[in-house]
Every structure is written in structure tokens, then in C-alpha cells.
């Protein structure tokens, strides 16, 4: 499971830079404020403004190389305007009431101008429902900076130019009383339970009525009931109890991207299907794909046993061929058993003489081998 929608924009790096400039020189501080006012009057837009901000960060003498790289990365990942905006173009800002705080600590109150809600009024983004916002460790390294909040990991990854480390999250903000605190199941201030399901390992919250469990072998929260799934150590994935005895093990089968939508499968929140050949893809992608093909998109093996269907198909088409093609033989290679054989010609789906599969393809005759059903394995 993973988590979603930007709650705040972070100009903490810029503010930290301006404070450093102020300490070095009063005149440079005035210039920094002038530049800031100029940017605000122009609504923080334009590529030139972004370049100015990057140059200021590069010239800073009081920021570490790591802090500079992080600040520049945030600017690069922003849209055309320097303030992040939602689809309805409304700014979402977070303000720390105690601006003199030297670090993000428990008990600090934050003021959120707008909190994402579902149509039924519950707090949540397009991915999950929960009563707290996450404080990503990767985006909150700067001291004295306005905290960056996201409803979930997925929302963070969609807006930022990097992937959020779910395990590194240490703080959350209660959306009811706006109290920042350590990750936990309940708010330390108003004692409200943040979600029906909580995982302290993944820092994951979900207030919907869903079956979710944490797999210690995957080290992830998975959708479903734990008793209905079994972890395969070789595949490195959780597989349904029904499919487990007959599934084909493939080492790291989920350590790959879906061949249809290219999303990384191991951490995907979508249901995944493991084919008979051992390759994996999203269930929805699979349902759309088999409308046009019955073979694995990676290895071309049949995704199911289609022999009964093709037996009827061949019976229907056997007598439809003209006399000059009725007795023609074709040399084919089978995608299922990986062997070659001579088989009667058909306009498509010619039968393998070894395994009776119709998942074959015509090939040129190999003169080094006799064109017989015992020709051997495909090379």
C-alpha cells in the first residue's frame, strides 16, 4: 500500500537562505527582501525567477552542499510557477505559529489554509482517507523552515522530483487540532484516532473499511487478508493461498515494472496478476491486454490453457481451405513448449505437433534438421 495531495508549498530553503544573507550583511538582506517582494509582485512566475533563486542558493556561504542540492531539486521539480497549485489553482500553504522554533518538534501548531476532503466530508486525498498529514523527512531537513505536509506518499511522489521514504517519516500533523507530533495511532492532543488501520512500520494510515495487513517478509502493507495470502520467498511476493500450490516461481517476480503501464510492481497499490509463465502485470492491465492477445507480453507463452477453444476453431476452419492449401505443411516453432515441428497449414493459429498448442509462429526451414515432429528444441 502507498499513500497522496499536496497540502503545502515549501519555500523554507529560500527563507533559510535569506536569513543567512541577513546575518552576513544588512545590505544584502535588504536586497534579498527586495528580490522577494519583486517575485511576490510577479506572482512568483517565470523561468527567469527560478534561475535567480537557483543562483542565490549556489552563492550561499551558510548552506551545506547537501542543503543546496536539496533546495535546487525542489525548484527544479516545481511547475512553471514557483508556488505549487492544485487543479483549481488555489494556493495551499502551511504556516508555523511559533516561527522562532529551531526545529520541527512535538506540540507545534500549524495553520493549514485548506485541507483536502472527500465528497462525504471526510479528510483525505484521491488515494486514501485519514485524519492526519505526513511530514516527509526528505522534504523537511532544513531547520527554521516552513514544514512541508502531504496527505500521503503517492501525493508526495506526484509533486516532488523524488520518491518519499515511507519508513523515514517521523512526524504527522493532526488535521483536527493542527498539532504536530510523533507518528502514532492517535493524536496526543485531542486523542482522535487517525485511521481505522495504522502501520507503525510503513507509517501508513487508511480510514476506509479495507482488509489490509503488513507482511514482514515484503516489509510492506498489502491489500487483502493475511490468512488468504502466503509469502513466497523465491518470488519475493505475497501470493493468494489458492494460486500458491500451482504458481510458477520466478525469482524477484515483482521486482519489475508492469510491461503494459511500466509502473513498478512491488510497491504498486494495484492488484497484480502472476501468469503461468511466472511474469507479472497489473490485473487491470491484464484484463485490457487479453482482449487483443492471449500470449504473455514478455515471453509470448499462453496465459491460459486455450486447447479446447482452438480444437473447435480448427474443426471449423479445416474444411474452409481451398484444395491447393488443404494438404500443405508448414514448419512452425511453438512459443509454449519451445519446439519445432511440421504441421498442416492454417491461415493462423497453426497447431504444434508436440504439445497441441496453437501458440505457434511459422519459421524458415532449418536445413540442418529434418522437418519432422521430432525436430528438437527451439534454439
UniProtKB/TrEMBL annotation:
Annotated membrane-spanning segments are none
Q: Where is the composition biased (Polar residues)?
A: 1-11
Bias class Basic and acidic residues marks the residues at 12-24
Enumerate the PANTHER family for this protein.
Answer: AND RING FINGER DOMAIN PROTEIN, PUTATIVE (AFU_ORTHOLOGUE AFUA_1G08900)-RELATED, RING FINGER AND CHY ZINC FINGER DOMAIN-CONTAINING PROTEIN 1
**GO BP annotations, alphabetical order:** protein ubiquitination; ubiquitin-dependent protein catabolic process
The residue ranges of the CTCHY-type domain are: 194-257
Identify the stretch annotated as signal peptide in this record.
none
Keyword Metal-binding applies: yes
Which residue intervals define the domain RING-type in the entry? 258-299
Q: Which domain of life is it from?
A: Eukaryota
Protein name per Swiss-Prot or TrEMBL:
RING finger and CHY zinc finger domain-containing protein 1
Q: Which UniProt keywords apply?
A: Metal-binding, Zinc, Zinc-finger
Presence of the UniProt keyword DNA repair in the record: no
Amino acid at each position: 500500500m502507498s499513500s497522496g495531495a499536496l497540502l503545502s508549498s515549501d519555500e523554507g530553503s529560500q527563507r533559510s537562505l535569506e536569513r543567512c544573507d541577513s546575518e552576513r550583511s544588512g545590505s544584502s538582506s535588504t536586497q534579498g527582501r527586495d528580490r522577494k517582494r519583486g517575485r511576490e509582485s510577479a506572482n512568483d512566475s517565470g523561468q527567469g525567477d527560478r534561475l535567480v533563486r537557483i543562483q542565490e542558493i549556489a552563492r550561499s556561504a551558510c548552506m551545506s552542499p547537501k542543503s543546496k542540492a536539496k533546495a535546487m531539486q525542489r525548484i527544479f521539480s516545481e511547475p512553471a510557477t514557483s508556488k505549487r497549485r492544485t487543479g483549481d489553482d488555489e494556493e495551499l500553504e502551511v504556516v508555523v505559529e511559533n516561527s522562532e522554533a529551531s526545529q520541527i518538534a512535538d506540540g507545534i501548531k500549524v495553520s493549514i489554509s485548506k485541507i483536502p476532503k472527500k465528497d462525504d466530508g471526510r479528510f483525505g486525498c484521491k488515494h486514501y482517507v485519514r485524519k492526519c498529514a505526513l511530514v516527509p523527512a526528505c522534504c523537511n531537513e532544513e531547520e527554521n523552515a516552513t514544514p512541508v505536509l502531504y496527505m500521503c506518499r503517492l501525493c508526495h511522489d506526484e509533486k516532488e522530483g523524488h520518491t518519499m521514504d515511507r519508513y523515514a517519516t517521523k512526524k504527522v500533523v493532526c488535521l483536527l487540532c493542527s498539532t504536530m507530533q510523533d507518528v502514532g495511532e492517535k493524536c496526543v492532543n485531542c486523542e482522535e484516532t487517525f485511521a481505522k488501520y495504522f502501520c507503525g512500520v510503513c507509517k501508513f494510515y487508511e480510514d476506509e473499511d479495507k482488509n489490509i495487513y503488513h507482511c514482514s517478509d515484503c516489509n510492506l502493507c498489502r491489500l487483502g487478508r493475511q490468512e488468504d495470502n502466503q509469502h513466497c520467498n523465491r518470488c519475493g511476493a505475497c501470493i493468494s493461498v489458492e494460486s500458491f500450490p500451482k504458481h510458477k516461481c520466478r525469482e524477484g517476480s515483482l521486482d519489475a515494472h508492469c510491461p503494459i503501464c511500466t509502473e513498478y510492481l512491488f510497491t504498486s497499490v494495484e492488484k497484480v496478476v502472476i501468469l503461468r509463465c511466472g511474469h507479472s502485470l497489473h490485473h487491470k492491465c491484464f484484463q485490457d491486454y487479453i482482449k487483443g492477445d492471449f500470449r504473455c507480453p514478455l515471453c509470448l507463452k499462453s496465459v491460459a490453457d486455450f486447447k479446447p477453444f482452438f480444437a473447435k476453431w480448427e474443426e471449423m476452419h479445416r474444411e474452409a481451405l481451398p484444395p491447393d492449401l488443404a494438404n500443405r505443411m508448414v514448419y512452425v516453432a511453438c512459443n509454449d513448449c519451445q519446439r519445432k515441428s511440421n504441421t498442416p497449414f492454417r491461415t493462423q493459429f497453426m497447431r504444434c505437433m508436440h504439445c497441441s498448442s496453437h501458440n505457434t509462429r511459422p519459421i524458415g526451414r532449418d536445413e540442418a534438421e529434418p522437418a519432422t515432429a521430432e525436430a528438437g528444441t527451439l534454439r
